[in-house]
């Protein structure tokens, strides 16, 4: 796992605009979700993971790359 720590403000900059990747924090870890659709992960599935409604959470997160963790 990457050791980079992201503040919430810094994480907000990785929103997929322009050439930037799209990152999302889930359970304190920061994942690169830029290519999630290419990996068969829809936005709906990601939101189900975020809101604790996914029965496939572990399988979905295994497909994503961890790029760091969310700073407290």
Automatic annotation (TrEMBL):
InterPro entries: Cyt_B5-like_heme/steroid-bd, Cyt_B5-like_heme/steroid_sf
Domain Cytochrome b5 heme-binding: 6-71
UniProt cross-references to SMART domains, sorted A to Z: Cyt-b5
Source taxon at top rank: Bacteria
Name of this protein: Cytochrome B5
Organism listed in the record: Limosilactobacillus balticus
């Amino acid at each position: 796992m990457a050791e980079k720590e992201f503040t919430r403000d810094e994480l907000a900059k990785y929103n997929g605009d322009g050439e930037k990747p799209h990152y999302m924090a889930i359970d304190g870890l920061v994942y690169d979700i830029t290519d999630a659709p290419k990996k068969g992960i829809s936005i709906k599935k990601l939101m189900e993971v975020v809101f604790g409604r996914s029965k496939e959470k572990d399988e979905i997160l295994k497909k994503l790359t961890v790029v760091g963790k969310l700073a407290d």
